[in-house]
Amino acid sequence: MRDLAHQLPLRLATGAFVLNSGLTKRGADDVAAKGMHGFASTAYPFLGEMEPQKFARLLSTAEIAVGAVLLFPLVPEGLAGLTLTGFSAGLVGLYLRTPGMRLDGSLRPTEQGTPLAKDTWLLGIGLSLLVDDVVRTYYRWRG
Asked: Tell me, what's the pLDDT at 3?
């Protein structure tokens, strides 16, 4: 556990942020659910077939689960990193696929895209946890 103390700030801050986001969405009303669903369906058309309230509940549950995995210290760093990486990759995909979020021909965000572009930080944190686990495992295996 002492070897992983440097990850504690990353996991606490990120886990608390994602958990709070999921808890906030937990009681989404019809208008909020339709907004979230419509936005996500633009980037991921297969979601269009899902009922907005069901989508909001699923998103809320996913965020709560990701937050909990990050906050629970007994979850190994690799699993925590994989969970966050998978979740945040979907968010970054939302940023990349939604029209008007990026400047034409660029990865740079528009003013509207800045709140989504910040999800790249979550992806970076997830990948850092994964790389840390891979490197640590390699050196343990090597002896």
From this structure: 65
